[in-house]
Amino acid sequence: PAEGFQRDRLYWRHSGSLVRASHGEDFYVHIPLPCFELVYVFLSYYISQTRNPQISTILANGGQWKYLTFLNLVLQPIFYGVAFLEDVLKRIKEKKDVKFITAFRYLLFTTLAFPVSAFVFLLFWILFLYNRELIYPKFLDVIFPAWLNHAMHTSILPISLAEVILRPHRYPSKKTGLTVLTVASFAYMGRVLWIYSETGTWVYPVFAKLSPVGLAAFFSLSYILIIGIYLLGEKLNHWKWAAHYGNMVRDKFCRLREA
Q1: Which of 177, 185, 249, 251 is deepest in the core (most CB within 10 A)?
Q2: Can you tell me where the transmembrane regions are (predicted)?
Q3: What is the pLDDT at residue 166?
Q4: Cα–Cα distance, 55 to 46 (Å, whole number)
Q5: Of 52, 54, 51, 50, whose CA–CA distance to 64 is shortest?
Q6: Considering the entire predicted model, what is its pTM?
Q7: What is the pLDDT of residues 50-108, one digit of tens each?
Q8: How far apart are the C-alpha atoms of 98 and 108, rounded to whole Å?
Q9: Crossing angle, helix 146-153 and helix 114-131, to 10 degrees?
Q10: Which long-range contacts (CB under 8 A, 24 or more apart) does 197-203 make?
Q11: How many CA atoms lie within 13 A of 171 on its CB side?
Q12: Strands 18-20 and 11-13
């Protein structure tokens, strides 16, 4: 009976990063797939709409790659693709053979995938609710259906939070994590400023409303916000999985003593 209970109960096996259900079925390996496919569908639809002549002016001077929303839609499938690859390889290889991919998955999610998706969600909806013309002018409703807007700017946060809740992540040192996020943040801000210097047009309408001082303040507050999101993600991961890691260490210590 005890063995049957152990086989049937739901439990985490961290060494394989899998969740096991009854009858020993590994289903966590399939979790990234719906997320990957969902984001890919949204991304494909978004790209197909760029052929619409009504938005040719919006996509001028940098195309869709100038928008953080689009970059995030590219980032998320990349992350879930890496996560899926890791799960598959862990089923056919030894753990040590996929350590690099596991470390890359940790780094990609903790420093970019989660902070950027949460940042896009928060900043978009804050500006949208304050004055949508600053971030997503009303005429875009004719081009992009409401469901696509929510796919790009709403669903991204629940999907990322689900990843935090369903799977533990090892955060890098604060120096490494904040360095990666800072480089990415300044690279994007630099691109926004470069596009303006070359074309005289801003990526987002809100920038045209700001003075140089206001723009500096906006960028500074945005940077503080995304750093805060990173630190919050680290806290959430520790809150959810501290006991899990503690049990791992205790079990390993007990095995060493028994040996």
Answers
A1: 177
A2: 27-47, 67-85, 106-130, 142-166, 178-196, 216-233
A3: 86
A4: 12
A5: 50
A6: 0.80
A7: 666 666 777 777 778 899 998 998 898 889 888 888 888 888 876 667 889 999 999 99
A8: 15
A9: 130
A10: 198/61, 199/60, 199/61, 199/62, 201/60, 201/61, 203/62, 203/66, 203/67
A11: 24
A12: antiparallel
Structural tokens at position 145 = 């259906």
Taking only the tens place, the pLDDT of each residue in 144-181 is: 888 888 988 998 999 899 889 888 899 999 999 999 99
| Calpha distance 109→121 (Å, rounded) | 16
> Per-residue DSSP letters for the chain?
-HHHHHHHS-EEEGGGTEEE-GGG-B-GGGTHHHHHHHHHHHHHHHHHHTT-GGGTTTSTTTGGGG-HHHHHHHHHHHHHHHHHHHHHHHHHS-GGGGHHHHHHHHHHIIIIIHHHHHHHHHHHHHHHHHHGGGTS-TTHHHHS-HHHHHHHHTTHHHHHHHHHHHS------HHHHHHHHHHHHHHHHHHHHHHHHHHS--SSHHHHTS-HHHHHHHHHHHHHHHHHHHHHHHHHHHHHHHHHHHHHHHHHHHHHHH-
Tokens for 183? 């480089």
58: amino acid identity, one letter:
I
Q: How far apart are CA 49 and CA 144, in angstroms?
A: 8
